[in-house]
Amino acid sequence: MKKAFTLIEVIMAVIIVSIVVMGAMELQGKNQDMGVYISNRGKSELDNSLFLTAKAYGYDKDEKDAYELLRDEFDIKDLESREALKEITKHINITEDEEMPVSMEENGPPIFTFYTNEILLKGEYPARYYNFK
User: Fold this and answer.
1) Which of 23, 104, 121, 127 is the 20 to 30 Å CA partner of 8?
2) What is the pLDDT of residues 65-87, one digit of tens each?
3) Distances in Å between the alpha carbon of 92 and those of 43, 52, 85?
């Protein structure tokens, strides 16, 4: 009599292999989604840097495009570049300056004081930046 696998053993092996393959495919899909998210988030951070100019402080609680903020600082002659900048829009919120005293001891007299405020850019990927003065 020859030794061979029974039908049940073969079916169980196929089920186990299919479960492992399905898990690997699901993990691959999640990794791909995360890669796309990270790529888009990185592009958004580059877009956000266009809104961190001194002119942005004049547009608190407004929605502006990047071209509006940069047109006075740069001479953008290329129509395609202008249109690309006009497509990048963010809603700008800026908080009031907050006083931050710095001292050597807790509750001691301040050595110096600096001011900070928050710039919140709302869009597909919102971002928060802090400005120290």
Assistant:
1) 23
2) 999 989 888 888 889 999 999 99
3) 18, 10, 16
Using CA atoms, how far apart are residues 121 and 128, in angstroms rounded to an integer?
6
In this predicted model, what pLDDT tens digit does every residue of 21-47 receive, in sequence order?
999 999 999 999 999 999 999 999 989
Q: Is residue 20's pLDDT more than 90?
A: yes
